[in-house]
Design a protein that fits this description.
Blueprint lengths: L16 E2 L16 E4 L7 H9 L4 E4 L3 H7 L9 E4 L18 H15 L1 H13 L4 E4 L5 H14 L3 H9 L5 H11 L15 H15 L2 H8 L4 H11 L21
Helix pairs in contact: 3-8, 4-10, 5-6, 6-8, 8-9
Amino acid sequence: MSRQSRHIPFERLCNFRDLGGYATEDGRSVRWGRLYRSDSLDKLAGEDWERFLGMGIGTVVDLRHPWEIEARGRVPDDASFTYHNLSIEHRPYDQPSLGPEIEVGPFLAERYLEVADDGAAELHEALEVIAASDRPVVFHCASGKDRTGLLAALVLALVGVSEEDAAEDFALTELATKRLLADWRAAHGGREPTWPGYGRAPAEVMTLFLAALTHRHGSVRDYAANALGVDEALTAALRERLLTPAVAGMPAFASGSEAGTGT
């Protein structure tokens, strides 16, 4: 499978992609067409909107701040899906205005740790929403990179996908970086962001974040259990909704630190 094939083409959306296909530690895989991640769905209109409706999505999770939604809009209303606004970031920061000396990997990993701490209640609720949906789910923020990337990595870890695959999935936003930059320039009179790292998503960011989370909590699953209150029932529900069926004789899924780093 090519890196590009995960991206689903839209005219205005540039970072809408399927989280299916990743293998889990017990030999299963994430089902295609069950869980999507995206840049902001307020851009949907015309043929893009019709294509989106045709995907059968039943739940939209918007991870942006309420003030972002007020300023830029949200996914259009439709009876075919439910909408949840769960703002997981409590300490906003202005990436485009950062100085060129700021290193992408360490800086963003530190911001993600803040979100992991501050947004515990919203992250738990987002996981519950995903686990409860019997139809496809899409979650998004503004660019589909940072807040969306954190939630994607957390879901993948909880269902048993490796740290390497979670970091690779994060890095696929690099395929959308040119479009994200072009959109920013168009919205800001052709100016360039002062931070060369704007729109970038090197795998190092996610690798550093997951390693730091493991250092603090023992494993990503221990973080989810102890900081988010994710119990075995919720983890099992996520796996039931998102993974291909277990095969007879397949080893049981280990939870918590018994499963290794869990990242």
